Amino acid sequence: MLLYSPLSVSYNGKTCILFRARKLAIRYRNHSLVDLTERTFSPDASVDTKGSFCSKDKAILNLRFGDVEDLRGLSIRLQMSNTFYESAGQNWFNLDNVYIHYNWTHEAAFNATDVYAPSTNSYHCQHVSSLQKYDTLLVPSANTDHAASWHITFTDFQIQAFNVQSSKFAAASDCATFFTPAILMGLITSLILLLVLAYALHMVVHLKHIDRYEENKTTVYFPRSTEAESTEKNNL
Fold first, then answer.
1. Is 22 within 8 Å of 58 (Cβ atoms)?
2. Which pTM does this prediction carry?
């Protein structure tokens, strides 16, 4: 499929969100698949980004499609945050939630807490989806929520909501390769524990070796010569 140029969103006269996907598709229950790709990214796209918002620590991408087939007032909202992690020494941005609004009053909410990247980078993943075959990065927020009736998939997904420079994506952190602060701290902690364990084992082996040496050590007796004994008697 044709990869369109990124969707650019400005706030207060400055580009603050870049978003791109090779395909954006949704499905409600057993209804037919609704492809929103051209409505979002084509040069004649009809999507309205009114309601999008950017700040230092929050960003909202609001995609308003209007009436699409039998869905009325359809819109998709991506809600992101920017947080400083002391363990990593830098800011990371999270895609916290994805919302589907339809028929004016209904909403389906998905948690997307496994979608994150350093704030100086964009985030890229081959699939960001609610489908199990794509690792289910979008999880219904509650069993009683309308999200359980929806499937949504972004193919070749890329987004950046903070530190956008020159209206271009920064280097991408891919969902399959980068380490999160939690993973990095876990690896460091595991390494420290392994070093402590290795040192403790070394000391135990060393102490056992010393104990065996003490047990096997014998007293060496040197017999005295008769001349030495005679000399001692004469001295007495």
1. no
2. 0.71
